[in-house]
């Protein structure tokens, strides 16, 4: 038993709504929410800002170790990443950061660094953690695992809407192309590729409204953890 509750792992491809859904599930259960994608994005952003090579695993790990990471926990589902006291928000949605994050996420040293941070952040439970390898690698013993999927077209449509809502530029065709490439990179890499854990519940949300996905996960939680 974990002191704060169970671990709910949500994995799936780019732009499938893992963060939106995960935050809502966390809010319903009084759990914390952790986006591991934001960790990769934050490091990618810092590397871009520092002019560091995105291929240099050792230097990236050194950079990750030199900055102060903060993930406000227990402060509600809206948990953002701060680096050296700077709260990162919109800058992490930039396309250059998405691309760079997927690139550095291939590197073994970077992944190992993230793994340590992610395990530390989630081990006491009471957490919804989303990413690509949570159910397969970070917490293979998570009590509830969900693999959230949707067609690339549906994801591109949603992502365009989200970006526009943030006041950012969004061209559907470019986003679709980008999503397909990022999926290929995330699924095709050697280190902890994106894949469904054997014991994960598969949910195709292509034609499912967000609230139904949230309800379905909360229902799975109640069934597996009555009372
Ligand atoms: O989920 P999000 O799009 O924010 O993730 C950004 C990138 O970080 C992904 O494309 C993926 O390459 C990487 N990532 C990962 N493992 C995770 C979470 C994210 O490799 N657990």
What distinguishing features does this structure have?
single chain; alpha/beta; Rossmann fold; 5-stranded parallel β-sheet; 50% helix
Describe the overall structure.
The structure is a single chain. With 227 residues, this protein is an alpha/beta fold. It has one domain: Rossmann fold (3-Layer(aba) Sandwich). The chain is 50% helix and 13% strand. It contains nine helices and eight strands. The strands form two sheets. A five-stranded parallel beta sheet has the order 2-6-1-7-8. A three-stranded antiparallel beta sheet has the order 3-4-5, with no helix packed on it. The longest helix has 17 residues, at 172-188. The chain is globular and about 50 Å long. It starts with 6 loop residues before the first strand and ends with a helix. The model has no long low-confidence stretch (mean pLDDT 92). Residues 14, 36-37, 40-41, 101-102, 105, 131-134, 182, 186 line the site of cytidine-5'-monophosphate. Cytidine-5'-monophosphate binds at residues 14, 36-37, 40-41, 101-102, 105, 131-134, 182, 186.
